[in-house]
Amino acid sequence: MLLDEARQVLEIEADGIMKLIGRLDHRFEQMVDTIMHAHGRLIISGIGKSGIIGRKIAATLNSTGTRALFLHPVEAMHGDLGIVCPDDVFLAMSYSGETGELNLLMPSIRKLGCPVIAMTGNPESTLAKYSDIVIDVGVEKEACPLGLAPTASTTALLAMGDALAVVLINKKHFKSSDFKRFHPGGALGQRLSREVSDIMLSGKSIPITTTRATMREAVAEMDLHGLGAIIIVEPAGKLAGIFTDGDLRRMIARGDSIFDQSLPEVMTPAPLNASAHTPAFDALNIMEQHEITILPIIDQSRRVIGILHLHDILGKGEFKFNGTAPEKKERLE
User: Fold this and answer.
1) Exposed (0-12), middle (13-18) or buried (19+): which is 61, by Cβ within 10 Å?
2) Cross-strand partners of 92
3) Distance between CA atoms of residues 165 and 187, nearest Å
4) Residue 31 has what pLDDT?
5) Alpha-carbon distance 170 to 189, whole Å?
6) Which Pfam families would you find in this protein's record (predicted)?
7) CA 264/CA 215 separation, integer angstroms
């Protein structure tokens, strides 16, 4: 019985979110463009449960490259309105659209001249009439059996805020390396603050062979380590090139006779690289700029001392290039 009730709550909330998809239209695009072109900040305001959701959305936006600030409607009426300027965008959140404290503030916001966006479940509400752009986040019913406690409605509001944040991440080309500046105490921030030597693979963990090795030997070594690449060195140990599984796929696609060719013929010579003392932050910038996942690590004599994979910086399954999953573009050119 308890599990059935819990499942019903999740189904109701999931249904509420799914029905938002069909309502996405040009107004969402207008909201994104308005925020993108604003010279000021996104000021988010709401009260009660909507205010709590508003604080969370503001936090998500701030950590992903969009300057945002939460303004309590009551505090705004008692002096905090001074933080809002015409260059800002004002985002008002109220499911009913008839929240007294918020609507009392709206005439003052309109006088300031900043664009006003409403996220509400009632597109015909007083709040909607004060707004330039109205985003409908209405749900058919609350998960609360009494229909009183905001449940599905706050979930829908939060989901729409997340949709806004993610679209802005992609529009602004916010990168993982930018994350360090806003999360210096987080796990990713800590990894990015370290030197390459702290996170690179070294010793027997390096997939490496010499220019004298056969293609069959190189492919076997690459497969053994499972990093998608093998570093090629001169007999003296100096970096000569790199060969990736992407290179191998392209050879197969062209119908090349793979094992009849030598490594110097198929490798990428003089690949991008880094030193052991390179900050992980800088190594990540190189990877994102060139959309590669592997960096050979060399010493002052260009001898290979390690290899750095993007996973070692970001953690497996967490990396994306400018918001889109990489297509394993591993050739270092």
Assistant:
1) buried
2) 45, 118
3) 21
4) 97
5) 20
6) CBS (PF00571), SIS (PF01380)
7) 10
Cα gap 164→31, rounded to integer Å: 9
Q: Which residue spans of the chain are classified as CATH 3.10.580.10?
A: 196-314
Task: Give the right CATH number for 196-314 from 1.20.1440.230, 3.10.580.10, 3.40.1280.10, 1.10.357.10.
Answer: 3.10.580.10
List the Cα angle 137/135/168 in 5-degree steps: 105
Nearest to 296 by CA among 311, 276, 314: 276
Secondary structure (DSSP) of 221-283: HHHHHTSSEEEEE-TTSBEEEEEEHHHHHHHHHHT--GGGS-HHHHSEES---EETTSBHHHH
pLDDT value of position 328:
38
Q: Which long-range contacts (CB under 8 A, 24 or more apart) does 318-323 make?
A: 318/176, 318/188, 319/176, 319/293, 320/176, 321/175, 321/288, 321/291, 322/170, 322/173, 322/174, 322/175, 322/288, 323/166, 323/169, 323/170, 323/173, 323/174
The answer to whether the annotation marks 311 as part of a ligand binding site is no
Indicate the pTM of the whole model.
0.57
Q: What's the pLDDT at 187? A: 56
Quote the tokens at residue 34. 């308005």
Q: How far is the C-alpha of 91 from the C-alpha of 137, rounded, in Å? A: 14
Instruction: Write down the CATH number for the domain with range 1-174.
Output: 3.40.50.10490
pLDDT at 188: 58
Q: What is the mean pLDDT of each run of 10 residues along the chain (333 residues)?
A: 90 93 95 94 94 93 87 91 93 95 95 96 96 95 80 94 92 67 57 81 93 93 91 93 92 89 92 92 83 92 93 59 40 36
Q: Is the dihedral of CA 152, 158, 161, 166 positive or negative?
A: negative
CATH 3.40.50.10490 location in the chain? 1-174
Cα(283)–Cα(294) distance, integer angstroms: 10
